[in-house]
Amino acid sequence: MRSHYCGEVNETLEGQSVSIVGWMHRRRDHGGVIFIDLRDREGLVQVVCNPEDAECFAVAERVRSEYVLKIEGLVQLRPAGSDNADLRSGKIEIIAKKLEILNASETPPFPLNELLDVNEDIRLRYRYIDLRRPEMQQRLRFRSQITRQLRHFLDSNGFLDIETPILTKATPEGARDYLVPSRTHQGEFFALPQSPQLFKQLLMMSGMDRYYQVVRCFRDEDLRADRQPEFTQIDIETSFVEEEDFMNMMEEMIRGLFANVLEEALPNPFPRMTYAEAMDRFGSDKPDLRISLELVDVSDLMGEVDFKVFSSPANDPRGRVAALKVPGGNNLSRKEIDDYTKYVGIYGAKGLAYIKVNDIDAGREGLQSPILKFLPDEVISAIMQRVEAKTGDLVFFGADKATIVNESLGALRVKLGHDLDMVERGWKPLWVVAFPMFEWDEKSARWHALHHPFTAPRESDLALLDSDPEKCLSRAYDMVLNGTELGGGSMRIHKTDIQQKVFELLGINEEEAQDKFGFLLNALKYGCPPHGGLAFGLDRLVMLMTGAASIRDVMAFPKTQSASCLLTDAPSPIDDALLKELNIRLRKNPQAE
Amino acid sequence: MRSHYCGEVNETLEGQSVSIVGWMHRRRDHGGVIFIDLRDREGLVQVVCNPEDAECFAVAERVRSEYVLKIEGLVQLRPAGSDNADLRSGKIEIIAKKLEILNASETPPFPLNELLDVNEDIRLRYRYIDLRRPEMQQRLRFRSQITRQLRHFLDSNGFLDIETPILTKATPEGARDYLVPSRTHQGEFFALPQSPQLFKQLLMMSGMDRYYQVVRCFRDEDLRADRQPEFTQIDIETSFVEEEDFMNMMEEMIRGLFANVLEEALPNPFPRMTYAEAMDRFGSDKPDLRISLELVDVSDLMGEVDFKVFSSPANDPRGRVAALKVPGGNNLSRKEIDDYTKYVGIYGAKGLAYIKVNDIDAGREGLQSPILKFLPDEVISAIMQRVEAKTGDLVFFGADKATIVNESLGALRVKLGHDLDMVERGWKPLWVVAFPMFEWDEKSARWHALHHPFTAPRESDLALLDSDPEKCLSRAYDMVLNGTELGGGSMRIHKTDIQQKVFELLGINEEEAQDKFGFLLNALKYGCPPHGGLAFGLDRLVMLMTGAASIRDVMAFPKTQSASCLLTDAPSPIDDALLKELNIRLRKNPQAE
Predict the structure, then answer these.
(1) Which one, of A441, A412, A303, lies nearest residue A349 by Cα?
(2) ipTM for this model
């Protein structure tokens, strides 16, 4: 129907006839002439309807916002001085010779030709209008381009795109599974996969050697701002490879992606940091390295002080006391410090001690803090020395269980970075490595897998599985970019005895292991190759690369935070007759049963 | 870990050291030497372990089938006369210098080094072993290659890969939806999509212009041999295009696929056939043109005969009498004809009349049939003339409602083609076009949509929607290859009034339409562009192109015909506590409620 996209008509076509289709974006009547901006995927072009062309003009008079038009006309340069530098087509206009209304439109619920802050619920309800906005179009195009690039890299490197089932078996963390009642096997359920983890491992056992899939995953949980019930992974697995080679390949892929799609250079190689160092310096296993603020451990200085808040965690093997110096921070107001104290409270911190450095050379007199009185001179000066405090700085302190100190000061560090405009521009990727295999869960008094139960321990740490599980490091690795985990993975366990030992440590008894993972344990017996892999979160990656504020802005049809679709009104009630066929029914009074 | 894949080691590497990894496929002890065939994704290579190399030899002695090995060795040409022409590596062997067992294997449940007919249930239960077989590896690689090719074509033509939701709204044909209870909205359900039909139309309304997706779809129905509860579509939609241009583009894509992947040339252009002609000549809207047998209508000859079985359908406007000539078929035995009679019975035919042509020049005397006595001479000779019968032929007859005649003789035609070895080699694609919008359903006494309710009627047939719906043709098209429907699609309705009229005709009242499709009807109001598209069945396409006998052979982890996964044992029972969280429970006695 068209000879050109609207956005592609430019001065090289001067004097030629073109035919374009699109949406009526804006209309101006000026000096008896009607100007129409016609919009399609590629952009806008200005169409001129002159009253001399009566037929065309009459149609133009009827045209309203978002009408779908077909226009034939002649390309001519705009009159001198009326170029629009913001448009690719800004040097030309099209003199309409024929104008046809392909479809009318009611007045849209929000205008597309003005920059307006539209309520997100309205945007989601009328998603088909929201998606016409150029920035939304750009994001989805960009997403398409990103997966194409990643696929191209993986295809070129011998990875096979293999599909794994969506209707699959419930996992032990079944609480987060979406369930699907089976009609054929009444009383039984499929689960939607939280990831194709076991299937990709089975594909390695199947000798596929290199696998990838751009695959939908599902998690039925309370939705934080940044989560969706369904999300997309770039899922990758490979056999007969060591983590070093594999990580190099993966960072090459991401470097290539940024170079090709954004024309941005990422470092080569990505820096690597152990989990221990990341927690120590940044209180996080996904540190945002654009922010130079760092946690400094001062536990060793606090063991003897006459202040329980500091001395007690300093003497607790699972405790920590850490300082966070804010250069130039001593002009923070009382109110600001109170707000930060509330902020760390979210992460369980019971307070937020601080010292303001008014004059570093004046000793105790040059400092200002409610806690000064608890600290002897030599401790104060040791702290100031260790954090390299200067006049005008402020030093925050966290003292609690290490997990709480790390989480709260780690979050505070990032918040301060943004609040005080201390975030460097650009991209700061890194690998975090040498994760512990297990972490101790206080509540359940059990070991939990820091990654998942199929993650291999380091060969050199195998003996620690028996003697000191907490010290046993895994062969896991996370790729982190600007404080976001882009992807994570590991070398997997490929031997039955180690898998069984890990299940035992995690408190999964033999019967449960057989019931849940029997097929994996079986498969390990029949010649499982050494293998490992990684999964990238595509939505998160696209969000970072496009600078979108919400994950919902990089998906065509996202769900709300209460996991519903405002456009189609899903989920929705179902006829009892249909439920009957599935042999299920609703509980009338869930509390009573 | 490897320097080369096993299958890639060849005579160009003579004299070089290589390092390979893979599975122990076969072991032979011969003249004191151990020969190991090592297997990986790329093929087999022969490894020689000499007793002189004691360390290596000792390991080789322990090696059993499907052990995972790492071998370093020297490539040398095989001794004269011992080349294996079946292997890419057949001119060389590797003299092992180092042999390491990376993992052991129990004896596999079926051998991989012998061609055996293994029970499919065992293959599915041990899929990770089954998939190691070269033909299964080939099929999945091929599938990966096919999607890559199709993606490449679509990317190059400006189609954007956009993901649509899997957790979506139940459709009116809800009986076939898989349902997913919502935790957040208790008592409500998502449905898994039977296709992303409405979402892709909404993407066109969103101005995306060209969309595609390789997408999982779901259908909860009794599984015929060739169906799976989840299957994959190449889903395509485009705006501002006429069907001719779009069909040309789609066949160019498929021609390119066959040329690139199979090096086979498909005709250019594909022949086109109306639905009416396809039913008339082949009794099917997906005719296998490799079989030259055709149905010939003889209704007009039968109106007056004194044989109700023929005259009554001949006089019924929805009836049909048709002949199917089988060249050389008069040597079919009584038993064979009985079997064919039973066969057409599956399709509802109440019998299968026939005439054997012993001597075409001898008139009635040269023919042999139980029905001859009912037919006057002039009718007999008119039939013989019309089907161009020759001595030695046999003519079958179908007489019933047209739907039954078409289905039964259409199926018989294909069966005869295969039984009598009348299937031409090669590829016979075609487009079937000019489908009716509606077909009358006798049971429900209602019009049904032949495609789906969003299919556009031909512009020229719009008036028929009111006057004679049965005659109204649609803008639908199906691509058929060798008797299989590869894909189907249509131009869609893009105007509210026509969509409403079609809903009315289908007996969907306004309330129901609003409830089920309100969002689509709404979207039509706000500037919907003319659009249309198509969806290809990927599994079917791969099956055809690989010559696989079952759809399960082109999927990594298929379900059985009772929709269960023998590998993971899904679906499975779920703890009542989990069901409680979803506010559902099992009916104890479904019959009683």
Answers:
(1) A412
(2) 0.94
